[in-house]
């Protein structure tokens, strides 16, 4: 299931009907499917347990409805000035009238009227009538400056809130990253290759980073061809925007083909005969293909490295197949573990030539059952393993660095796994490698005061639910920060509304998120947010911001927080307590009260092992069965294209506090850091037919890239079932899938 709309995680989640032994956070509930999520692959049957408000999507809608949008700092200051000015004007007018009466006296009604007119005239004259017009004009100039950067602000006051922000809380998937799984590493018997380029587009190239060039490229090509054949995803480049249909991890194989010369042509030289589907028990899938021209049948298998290694007896070395001895088996397992330690999604690829002994199915057999698959998936040839990750946006790293230079702290809040969040945060400079990461489960235990203290020293929050995001934003606000929150998914909407300024992505963002935010980035350029931030003193020490430590006066952002105000849940002109429900809002003590806020114990703060940062790219070629023998690997093909890498967008210049392109401001000092018998079914969307002989995969421009999938294996009665996106099908417990 693709659950990015709820969890923010790019990878599709495998569902299993087994009941969980203990309560789990939203992203780890493997026995449930949710309304608003999509089927990435497979067929299943489920029992509906909740509809409407009882679903997770309904809970988010309820949080969004009950969350009150925060006033901007400028609105609070204007309200405070207006109250003070009004009282002052009235007091002065009264004093003047009393003084006139005492000095000159009142001899009759006419004199009394004169004194009253004098007081009223004084009060009217003292009111700055031109201030609202001037203020609106200045704010409009700021809005226009942001509009030139494709940022749409819904109201004038939001531009000042953006410029005054001292903390930027950002979702990871789709905001700091592209939300497009990208294959960046291939590890084979002879070495390692890396692929440049990001996303589902064909731009990028391959290069060898370890080992001899020719053998590594030959083996890497075989890996990509095998992964692209054992695949049911599709790529569509129509409209100039490449999108994926199906499992994003499988789509990464298709996107990698044009980056390695000859790989796309080799993958197009097969036609599918049958498929052995993926199951949670086997943790692999296989396809039986026929090679164009020779008529030879090949088995391509993709899945978990440990499962494939157990079924392999040979290994591809260059263009030849050699026995998989104990040393080579250990090396392959170690390479896969090394990729996993770097927070990659790791898949292995193997192949086998079917010798024509009756094992291979006849053409058009379609989907094979698992016992038949087990009969084919033996004596495989290990081709290699790949590392897949959702890469950071090109502009995000520079934007984070500029925010740090401006004294603005960046905090990552994501529903993704702890290791992945730590790796991306280290790549972007948000947190140091191995820095503390708090998970959603750990956020349930601390009191509100403890969370305020813990948030000061934490820059990464992983595996969090929408309610956790709300609580984190409220904790930062209670600590005296002006908070900007960015996001693109439905799960980000409540936090966007509660923040001082919510920023939604215009291209990848959902309509709900755009409605909840006060600002929409038309081009999804994260650097636009930082362009509005004002420099607030000298650059901070890198460790101060990256590690989330308290800043120094003159070296951080924001205004120093008063302990009493923070404890009382207040900052800049008003309460910072979220107004709706138990999940938001920090319970506060009396104003000015001293409150102890102990840090979370170190045992409750998980640390991510330092990531190994190496350049990434890929290449390869495959051996013919006839040359390699009965256990050979796929054939090699020549040709291919190299594509230019995408250019990162420009970064704009920041302004002084408050009004981008308009008004300056003073420096700010950094604060211390159901029930029912209804049954629904779900299936993968309509699939295109397999890649036939002679078909080629487009390498540039637009147009659909057909995946090698077969027709959908759907029970006959499924055609009458509702789509998994139908509003009447909400949440359900997964049941065993019919085969």
UniProtKB/TrEMBL annotation:
Signal peptide range: none
Gene3D superfamilies: Calcium-transporting ATPase, cytoplasmic domain N (3.40.1110.10), Calcium-transporting ATPase, transmembrane domain (1.20.1110.10), HAD superfamily/HAD-like (3.40.50.1000)
Pfam family, one: E1-E2_ATPase
Family under the similarity heading: Belongs to the cation transport ATPase (P-type) (TC 3.A.3) family. Type IIA subfamily.
GO cellular-component term (any): plasma membrane
Biased composition (Low complexity): 560-580, 632-650, 668-678, 719-730
Protein's name in the database: P-type ATPase A domain-containing protein
Residue span of region Disordered: 532-599, 632-739
